[in-house]
């Protein structure tokens, strides 16, 4: 199967460090089809329907699937006519509001890259049950308001800094997450960048009938369109092709 890598970022429109031409070259080298999904939300450059229209027009010049990555919790309503310009929307959480304060995930990202070895989320998050409940509330609110197709890097959350995922992510949260995905027919992203979902969550999602998407979350050419982890998890859990997110519009040229 020629996979559609739904999750890539450009230097032209968000925080990528690569041009769209470089992404297309990487897709050709890796033998995948490519989707573009630059960051969208109130804190990003793509923060209005007018800018989304300009982005859609830009993408229409290239043989790519047209996507967005909406920052859940800091989103804005995408007008129906604008939404139809895109093949899909990824919804991702990059921070959580707790007790009136936003806890951004930038320190976690630095930690996972090896740049902040002393990072300890317990210094900011005192009640983990509240954190996980708030995360689910954000997803449920956005499920009802945004027409998004994919939940991006669903376990790229501060608990990753505390130990093995099976030891720090509660099973009740996993089960509620899987139920919400099924209820709203949203695919769970298998992320090469963040190595998510982990095994226990993946098995629960597979057993429940959840659909999946694959994404490199490419920001630079070296890692763009590399799908080793998604391919491994798809093979390991026997995920059939018809449960892998794709689009109907044919993408020519790569």
SSE inventory with pairings:
Elements: E1 4-5, H1 20-30, E2 33-40, H2 49-59, E3 65-71, H3 80-83, E4 88-92, E5 95-98, E6 101-104, H4 106-112, H5 128-145, E7 150-151, H6 165-168, H7 171-184, E8 187-191, H8 199-208, E9 212-215, H9 228-236
Parallel strand pairs: 1-2, 2-3, 3-4, 4-7, 7-8, 8-9
Antiparallel strand pairs: 5-6
Describe the model.
With 254 residues, this protein is an alpha/beta fold. It has helices at 20-30, 49-59, 80-83, 106-112, 128-145, 165-168, 171-184, 199-208, 228-236, and strands at 4-5, 33-40, 65-71, 88-92, 95-98, 101-104, 150-151, 187-191, 212-215. The strands form two sheets. The protein has a seven-stranded parallel sheet. The radius of gyration is 17 Å and the shape is globular.
Low-confidence stretches at least 5 residues in length (pLDDT < 50)? none
Regarding CATH, which class? Alpha Beta
Structural class: alpha/beta
Largest sheet: 7 strands, parallel
From N to C, what is the helix and strand string?
A: EHEHEHEEEHHEHHEHEH
Short description:
With 254 residues, the chain is an alpha/beta fold. The protein is 35% helix and 16% strand.
Features:
globular, two-stranded antiparallel sheet, TIM Barrel, alpha/beta, 35% helix, 9 helices, seven-stranded parallel sheet
């Amino acid at each position: 199967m020629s996979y559609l890598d739904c999750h890539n970022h450009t230097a032209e429109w968000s925080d990528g460090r690569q041009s769209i031409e470089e992404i297309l070259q990487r897709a050709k080298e890796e033998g995948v089809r490519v989707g573009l999904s630059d960051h969208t939300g109130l804190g990003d450059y793509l923060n209005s329907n007018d800018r989304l229209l300009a982005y859609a027009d830009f993408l229409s010049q290239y043989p790519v699937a047209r996507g967005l990555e909406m920052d859940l919790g800091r989103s804005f309503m995408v007008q129906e006519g604008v939404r139809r310009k895109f093949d899909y929307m990824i919804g991702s959480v990059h921070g959580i509001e707790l007790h009136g304060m936003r806890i951004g995930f930038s320190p976690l990202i630095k930690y996972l890259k090896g740049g902040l070895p002393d990072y300890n989320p317990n210094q900011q998050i005192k009640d983990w049950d509240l954190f996980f409940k708030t995360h689910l509330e954000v997803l449920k609110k956005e499920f009802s308001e945004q027409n998004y197709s994919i939940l991006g890097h669903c376990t790229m959350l501060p608990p990753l800094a505390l130990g093995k995922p099976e030891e720090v992510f509660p099973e009740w949260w996993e089960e509620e997450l899987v139920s919400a995905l099924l209820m709203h027919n949203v695919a769970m992203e298998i992320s090469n960048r963040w190595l998510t979902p982990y095994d226990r969550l993946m098995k629960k999602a597979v057993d429940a009938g959840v659909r999946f998407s694959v994404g490199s979350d490419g920001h630079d050419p070296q890692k763009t369109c590399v799908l080793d982890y998604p391919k491994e998890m798809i093979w390991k859990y026997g995920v059939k092709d018809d449960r892998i997110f794709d689009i109907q519009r044919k993408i020519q040229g790569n």
